[in-house]
Structure formats: C-alpha cells, structure tokens
Amino acid sequence: MHAIRIEEHGGPEVMRWTELPDPVPGPGEALVRLGAAGVNYMDVGARSQGGGGWAAPTVLGAEGMGYVAALGAGVTGLAVGDRVAWFYHPGSYAELLAIPAAELVPVPDGVDDETAGAVLMQGLTANHLSTETYPVGPGDTAVVHAAAGGVGLLLTQLVKARGGSVIGLVSREEKAAAAKEAGADHVLVHSGPGFEAQVRELTGGCGADVVYDGGGAETFTSSQLALRPHGVHAYYGPFMGVPTLRPIDLPNSILLTYPVVHHHVPTREALLRRGAEVFDLVRSGRLTQRITGRYPLAEAARAHADLESRRTTGKLLLLP
Prior knowledge:
Blueprint: E1 2-6, E2 15-19, E3 29-39, H1 41-48, E4 58-59, E5 63-71, E6 83-86, E7 96-100, E8 105-106, H2 113-133, E9 141-144, H3 150-161, E10 165-170, H4 176-181, E11 186-189, H5 196-202, E12 208-213, H6 220-225, E13 227-235, E14 255-257, H7 268-284, E15 291-296, H8 300-308, E16 315-319
Helix pairs in contact: 2-3, 2-7
C-alpha cells in the first residue's frame, strides 16, 4: 500500500508518497480500505511542528472513512464490507489502515462516503463546543472564528439550530458569502486582533456570550475583550499558537476553557451516541458539510499548501 509519510517536520514539501507494507489487523482491530480522508489544521500542525504524539517519522492524517476489508480476532459488531468512519486515528493518509474497532462509527444509509469522511472530526468538535463547552440557548450571541472554515461552518449551523445568533469572523471578503449561507447573522471581514469593538457594537455594548476561538494566539486577547462579563472564551486553536497568560489578565470575570474533543467522546458508548447525533443532523438536512476541495491522496501536499494559504473555505478531502 501507499501512504503520505514525513521523515522530518517542515512545510508541505516534506510530505512523501511512500510504499509501505500492508497492515495486518491485530486482536480487536479492523483492516479498513480508505474511502476518503479529511484534511484538518491538526494535520498541518502535526506536519510542521510535531508534538502530541506526532514525532517524525510518521504517516500523517487523523480522520476518514472507509470499508472494512478484514477483521482481527475478537471483533464483534462489524462485518467485511461495512462502511465506517473515524474522527481520530493517526496515520489516516494511507490506502489501508488497521484501526481498533472501538474507534469506528458505522456510517448510516443516507450519508455519502465523502461526507462521512469529512464530517466527524469537525462535526464532533462543533457538537462539543455548542453543547458541553457552552450550551447555546435561545437569545445567546456567539462569535465564531474562521466562520467559513470547516469547524466554523458547522458550528454556525449548530448555534443557529439551538436558537442562538452568530457573529462570524472571516479573513477575506470572498469568504463572507459562505459564512452567511451557513446562517451567520453578521459577518466581519477581519484578519488578526482588533475586532472586539465591532462585536460590542453589534451586541449593544454588552459583548458576546461565547467566543469560539480557533484563530490562534494572535486573536486571543481580542476574543476575551469581545465577551460580556462571565462570558466564555472557548479556545481550541493550540496548533495555531499557545499564548502566555496570567489569570489576573483575564478581563470581565470571563471563563476560559480549552475544549478537547476526546473529552466529548471518552467512551465507546459516547462515541457511538455523539457520532450518531452528527450523522442524524446530516441526514435531516440540519447540518451540511461544505466540501470545497478534492485531491488525490498522493497530492496531499497540495491540499496542505492550499489550506495554509487561507484561501480555501469549507472542507478539503483526500481520495485514494
């Protein structure tokens, strides 16, 4: 089989289309033939920086869907030919993967392969942010960073579905239409810090109830200044930079949290329940994953370069 492997960390140029031995599923594992792999900013951070278990050399990629090709000993509840998806399995930029069966979510009828490979990581993240991190309710105002990006588009839809309003931030004018199409009530074209005054103006001087911030260290302070007293700053952009912080620097008695999607699905039961919620939202039409780029798996470096350029909107996919 072939996979996208790096021998050292760096830019997209370090990514290599490499022939590797076919994996063999061990006890409790399923051999899965890749159908589609999602491209995420996490992958960019893993390639460029490492950390968090991504030391080089390694095969990149974490999210995808595929078809069960074989089963290891002791696996129940799956059969050869089943469609399955996963939100986090390191090494997913590969034609074949041996994945613990406990990490796999059945893909229901009514969800196509590309959507299944594109929606789980960002869908579960958006679900986590809008429910457990800050349970959005009617009348709440949320600021959504990168509102035309993969998480941002899904999060905007979920906030609106829960009765909230959205102030979306986008970096370029051409991205505003995508954020508005997803349901954003207001879209601010703004790159970097300094947007807090506009947010306060739009909220009658009160500030937002929650800021969902995947924008990185550069916007960290402005996100906090855009909040009402006791508002919630949900910072989920560690691969975009980790700011230095003293607790006394927090303004307006705000609450700062670092949401980790794994804590949303800590057990097999939680993963199946939350994964089914995301797929049910897709099947009902309440959640639409906007796929805007499809690349051959062998050209993953091009997908990374396009994602890092910040010219893309929605989700990018790698197809074998």
